Amino acid sequence: MTEGREFKRELKLLDAAMIVMGSMIGSGIFIVSADITRTLGGPGWLLVSWLIAGLITVIGALSYGELASMMPRAGGQYVYLREAYGPLIAFLYGWTMFLVIQTGTIAAVAVAFAKFTAVLIPALGENVVLLDAGLFKVTAARVVAIASILCLTWVNSRGLHGGKIVQNVFTIAKTVALLGLIGLGLALGRNAQAIAANLAGFWHAAWTHVSDGAITSVEPLAGLALLGAIGVSLVGSLFACDAWNNITFTAGEVVEPRRTIPWSLFLGTGAVVGLYLLANVAYILMLPAQGAPGAPDVFGRGIQFAASDRVGVAAATMLFGAPAAVIMAGLIMVSTFGCNNGLILAGARVYYAMAQDRLFFRKVGVLNDRAVPGVGLVVQGVWASLLCLSGTYSNLLDYVVFAVLIFYILTVWGIFVLRRTRPGDERPYRAFGYPVVPLLYVLAAAAIALDLLVMKPQYTWPGLGIVLLGLPAYLVWARRGRKPQPPAGNT
Questions:
Q1: Which of these, 167, 186, 192, 199, is most buried using a 10 Å CB contact count?
Q2: 209, 218 contact by CB (below 8 A)
Q3: Which are the contacts of 86, defined by CB distance < 8 A and separation ≥ 6?
Q4: Partners of 218 in the beta sheet?
Q5: DSSP assignment of 4-22, as one string?
Q6: Are the CB atoms for 414 and 431 separated by under 8 Å?
């Protein structure tokens, strides 16, 4: 199916770690702390939410290392699910990846890139409507978002080398910039008033409900109500920590994948989680957690009510004053552009693996003359661009958070399944702390999923519906006689 072509193994440990880090660091760290603080209250609980999300992420990455070392093939998590549970579960994962998870995230990150571009060039803003066709509204910002997707799709279609260079340059740049912001915040931005207010209410737990930009109620939290609120808050922090598994999709192009991928997962997730925790400590030193939506300045609005939830901009304003918006716009543009490069590069490898199993369009499983899945990249780019135009990507991503957790749970549980069904397979790396640590991940993720099922049913049930829509699609492939065949070689 590859017409004699094979993937080229060009990704070394640094490159792989850059894909992990670059795919994780987007705009989330600069935004989601506002919603977490509205949900939980005091700064202590803000740090707890990020710490739990970080621990879950690192434990998941350590667990995935065993599967990556056991099956270093293109498609990563899709392959792990197929080998543990069969083609149906793997297809449902790949279906949801293509329909929403990967493409919806690409669209959301591209729109974030465009919004911050408009800070520098107002003529490219969302309020500049070029065409209103009802279902599709074409604004200047959406054109910029789509242009960024198509640009990165083209770069990655020209070969792995170009995509790798873009990834390394932008990930290093945004990591250095984020470190600079954190360092300045910790060293120079400390505000005595903010520190005193945060220490006084460090463990104050309350859910601030907001409607139309105004506080409607403040609900004190304790016991089960507090646990439930923590679970809801993790949607934001886990989403900001997500996409670390993208490196597994590129396993067919990694040098010494059995060693490189586990190490890149550990180093990449560990570094990003550390950066995220330090960034939130810097926020707490510069801004009060509690605030008022109608306050006239960034200090009065606090972390809770930073304008448009842009906590990073609010913190930078405390450091730099008026130029902060421009400085942060530049940083977030670099961050989101590099993030999308990693997502675009890796995502097409999942659809390639599906096509190799004859569970997706045949041409998607063909490598172009640059040894990359060119058709898969184009198909992914077109669908992500349509999601940008429709404006539905944000709702779709909210809907599938629950489904994403379920697939993570199934994948980590797959370690237990494969230890039983394929005990003789080579495992150069074995999951850290097995069986306790992987089991802790499964239990923690299951508890969060159950919490979301109870607390956010308006999101969880539609998400399950999107996944289940894959059942008739799978049956169509089966009726056409497209039965999956294990890929050969390093593909």
A1: 167
A2: yes
A3: none
A4: 208
A5: T------B-HHHHHHHHHH
A6: no
Instruction: Indicate the helix (H) or strand (E) that contains 32.
Output: none
The residue type found at 178 is: L
Tens of pLDDT along the chain (491 residues)?
Answer: 445 578 999 999 999 999 999 999 988 899 899 999 999 999 999 999 999 999 999 999 999 999 999 998 889 999 999 999 999 999 999 999 999 889 988 998 998 899 889 888 989 888 888 887 766 778 898 999 999 999 999 999 999 999 999 999 999 999 999 999 999 999 988 999 999 999 999 999 999 998 888 899 999 999 999 998 998 898 889 888 988 999 999 999 999 999 999 999 999 999 999 999 999 999 999 999 999 998 989 999 999 999 888 898 899 998 888 888 888 889 989 999 999 999 999 999 999 999 999 999 889 999 999 999 999 999 999 999 998 888 766 666 677 778 888 999 999 999 999 999 999 999 999 998 999 999 999 999 998 888 888 887 877 888 888 888 999 999 987 776 545 445 444 44
The one-letter amino acid code at 33 reads S
Q: How far apart are CA 337 and CA 339, in angstroms?
A: 5
In the chain the first and final C-alpha atoms are separated, in Å, by 11
- The CA distance from 156 to 284, in Å, is 39
Q: Token pair for residue 428?
A: 């150069």
DSSP 343-365: HHHHHHHHHHHHHHTTSS-GGGG
Q: For 220, list phi and psi in degrees, rounded to 5.
A: -60, 145
13-479: CATH topology: Amino acid/polyamine transporter I (1.20.1740)
Q: Are 308 and 30 in contact (CB under 8 A)?
A: no
Coil vs helix vs strand at 135: coil
E strand or H helix that includes residue 433? none
Residue 149 burial (CB < 10 Å; 0-12/13-18/19+)? Answer: buried
Domain residue spans in the chain?
A: 13-479
Q: How far, in Å, CA of 490 to CA of 86, rounded?
A: 20
**Which residues make Cβ contacts (< 8 Å) with residue 479, sequence separation at least 6?**
none
Read off the amino acid at residue 141. A
H or E segment at 257?
A: helix 257-286
Q: Name the token pair of 317.
A: 């304003």
**Phi, psi at 76, each rounded to 5°:** 50, -110
Is the peptide bond prior to 435 cis by the omega test (within 30 degrees of 0)? yes
What DSSP designation does 243 have?
A: -
